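[Q] Does anyone have a clean structure-token version of this?
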Amino acid sequence: RMMYFNYSISGNNHNEVRHNFQSSLIATLSETTQLQAAYHRKFSNPSFIVDDKVTEDEWLLRKENLKASYIDEIKIGYTHSRKDFSFSLNSYLLDMDFAEKTWKVQAATYGRVGWFVISAGVNFFNPKGYNNDYTTFIVNPRLLLPCQLQIGGKAIVASKYDILPSGEKNYLAFHVEKQIGKHLSIGVDWHDV
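[A] Here you go.
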């Protein structure tokens, strides 16, 4: 599969057009196993983070330090899945104009036994040149009750501080959701951030 597309984004006092390219090759080794190799050229434009209204002169001064940069991402992935179990392992190499190469590895699994569902994952990040390697562990258990009620939680533990939005090493969340008919659900979430 290959995709090429242009898109335009409107920002403060200017427009940006970028060319993106994505190519992916998937080999199905058996009914339950796949391998994937992919390449994606995308871009990062930090100038669109600026939300406040500024004059044209102020914008030109700010824009000098907010350079749009291309990111080349290479992915190699493996997936094994069955009806109530799946496992995936993905490796990414990101080459960015504005930073050193970054290597990322993700492993995730999903399992279901009756009403109980659990998904879990590990992410390892290695931003070269920054001595800032870190790992995150994620666990997401859920109960699927027969009255169309779902109760679940999520825990994330990072190996370093300041990785999570709260600036802490741990993140917890709880979720309760009730399905009402085919098109309506009501839910409550609690997050510790």
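[Q] Thanks! Anything notable?
[A] The two ends are 40 Å apart (CA to CA).
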